[in-house]
Predict the 3D structure of the following.
Amino acid sequence: ESVDRKIFELLGLKEEREKDSELYKVFSEVFDKTTQETLEYMKKRGYIDTLFGVISTGKEANVFRGLDKDGNQVAVKIYRTYTTEFRRIWEYLAADPRVGYLPKDIRKLVFIWTRREFKNLQRAIKYAVRVPEPLAFRKNILVMEFIGNEYPAPRLKDVERTLSLEEFEELYHYTMRVIERLWKRGEMVHGDLSEYNILMWDKPVIIDWSQATVSRNKMAKTLLYRDLRNITHYFAKKGVEVEDPSDKLKELVGE
Ligand code: ADP
Ligand code: MN
């Protein structure tokens, strides 16, 4: 009962009328004690004041729109603590030279995963890549800059039907320059770059950095190739004259 109360308070809901709201359903489904406590901590620190609106419900995380204590919009990514993606997360973390001891407890593994996304965002910003500014993280919750105004910014996938060939060409080159700068100067790779993880805003904004890693990771070249292949594939379908991903890979890794 007290859990419900706190959820409602946080969500700014009026119990009687909004018990069936989508927000409440998603929330109570992913809400466990740890998440509740972590949200309370975030609220105490002013990072989150209210949550409203589910932006996305994914396999490993849900993203909410919220307000901080000053009324600024924030995006709140809450990782599931009981994810079925355990194996994948474990494999990715085990290969990352930045990550030390790996706990057996899935929840603690998710905390490391969350922190790693925060660190990746910070690192990408250092190399002048437009990403949501990371604001705070704790346990399985990441708070970041909200991209959008009233609504979240559309993904490239959402607006592709409205784009001209010239716009696709420009976006292709922009994205390839990002991949290149990240690899050469940032010594890192995104690893899941696609039309679903690019938000169309002031500039294209690259999101979803949980699987990103450093170039000295033994999986890094595989991830780099995956990004190059996905991006060239996508833009080729849109009529852009693209480079060969294998050639580009060789050029970047210098082999
Ligand atoms: P997933 O692992 O579920 O794909 P993402 O980080 O890609 O997680 O986020 C899922 C969706 O949430 C995105 O496609 C986007 O629509 C929205 N989203 C994520 N981060 C932000 C943000 N900072 N601002 C606005 N919308 C966001
Ligand atoms: Mn995504």
